[in-house]
Design a protein that fits this description.
The chain has about 400 residues and is of the alpha+beta class. It contains 17 helices and ten strands. A hairpin with a 2-residue loop joins strand 2 (about 45-50) and strand 3 (about 50-55). It is globular, with a radius of gyration of 20 Å. It starts with 11 loop residues before the first strand and ends in a 6-residue tail after the last helix.
């Protein structure tokens, strides 16, 4: 049996992308052709460069991940960038390319794309019967996932507490989805607004998005997983819904592999930006655990889960301009009382809390975000400088270039 990784020893990283046509940037449900080009068959997984690629529910979306947890995030960035280059070469034969960003700004999911038609489709079809997946919440949401290991129950408790404390502020930094179906929404992170109502028929699946403050596997199963499975039992006669797939909180405990998966981050315009944000998130969580030790469990209980959800949604709606409302900020992060908003919070994190623990080039990426705005802010600035509908083709062209060249979108 393989040794379990310890806290912050290595990290699993995943990025989701859309395939679009190069001529008009409409989504192209041709991920199966990419798989065929790599393996000779429409398999659900293949190897591209140093990464693994897999299909998603939608036939136009695929996921890249490092094949095993990696201790060096800059190496992960290089692996992602190389795999994207190879995937784009294959897709170019189909007149297509990869598009970054958490939501396609003009896509109509009821008309475009479809469910993956090959291996594993029975699971997706079951989800469609229960949730009707032909909507933005299933066909138009791309994110960056960070998988953080824990070796035992004690480490799980520390890590889960740290994640609960930090999670509400992540959308302010990573928000990149201010549009839906060609219209401006009132959210910087429309993906997260959409995500939270994705499975509203069974509200225990996503809970309050921010996980409940439970710190042992037994308590997690009793208070989160078992109630969720009882709620969906009415629609689970064939047993297709398993707790490992169903739990949709913004951070999910994966006990079978000893990891917590963070899922609230909008995927950015390039691996450089994604890995910079991931690096800062990991460094901040590590600093929280190092500073507070077992007392971090007490800090994670200082606010209700409902109040943390309000903070999360404030950051999703207003981004870096969101007001800070959680009382534990000063004690947990050492934030000065004069810091009133999310931008000041992240400036404090970068400058005085965890910034020394990330590579200098990633600190520069975060500095640009804090100075020019998160991806949503920069997309909005681009949109305002251009004529409404005509801005979207230019915006999508610029985003595909950013991904292909691994550079930030700098409006």
């Amino acid at each position: 049996m393989a040794r379990r990784l310890r806290l912050f020893e290595a990290f699993g990283l995943e990025l989701e992308y859309m395939v679009v046509r190069r001529d008009d940037f409409a989504v192209a449900p041709v991920v199966d052709r990419l798989m065929i080009a790599r393996t000779g068959a429409p398999l659900t997984d293949c190897r591209i460069g140093l990464c693994e690629a897999s299909n998603e529910l939608a036939a136009h979306v695929f996921e890249l991940k490092v094949p095993r947890p990696i201790p060096d995030i800059e190496r992960a960035e290089q692996a992602f960038a190389g795999a994207i280059t190879q995937a784009n070469r294959i897709l170019a034969r189909e007149g297509c390319a990869l598009l970054p960003g958490p939501m396609h700004p003009t896509m109509d999911p009821k008309r475009e794309s479809g469910i993956w038609p090959h291996e594993g489709r029975e699971i997706y079809e079951a989800y469609d019967r229960v949730f009707n997946v032909h909507g933005h919440g299933w066909f138009n949401l791309q994110s960056c996932h960070i998988n953080l290991p824990f070796a035992d129950d004690g480490e799980f408790g520390l890590l889960h507490a740290a994640v609960i404390l930090l999670l509400p502020f992540l959308p302010a930094l990573a928000a990149g989805s201010p549009f839906r179906e060609g219209r401006l929404t009132s959210w910087r992170d429309t993906r997260l607004d959409t995500y939270r109502g994705n499975q509203k028929r069974f509200p225990l699946i996503a809970g309050q998005i921010v996980p409940e403050p439970v710190f042992t596997e037994a308590d997690y199963r009793r208070e989160i997983l078992q109630p969720m499975m009882r709620q969906v039992a009415v629609a689970n006669g064939d047993g297709i819904f398993q707790e490992g797939w169903l739990n949709s909180r913004g951070a999910i405990a994966r006990f079978h592999r000893g990891a917590i998966e963070i899922r609230v981050l909008d995927v950015q315009e390039c691996p450089l930006a994604d890995m910079a944000i991931a690096s800062l998130v990991i460094a901040t969580l590590g600093t929280l655990v190092e500073l507070h030790g077992d007392d971090i469990l007490r800090l994670a209980r200082l606010s209700t889960t409902a109040r943390r959800k309000r903070q999360l949604l404030a950051c999703a709606r207003h981004g870096l301009a969101a007001e800070l409302i959680l009382p534990e900020l000063r004690e947990a992060f050492g934030v000065n009382a004069r810091v009133r908003g999310a931008r000041g919070f992240w400036r404090h994190i970068l400058g005085r809390f965890a910034g020394d623990s990330i590579p200098a080039r990633y600190a520069e990426v975060i500095e640009l975000i804090l100075r020019r705005g998160n991806l949503a802010d920069r997309l909005l600035a681009f949109h305002r400088r251009n004529c409404a509908v005509r801005s979207f083709p230019a915006m999508l062209s610029a985003l595909t270039t950013c991904l292909a060249e691994n550079k930030q979108f700098n409006s």
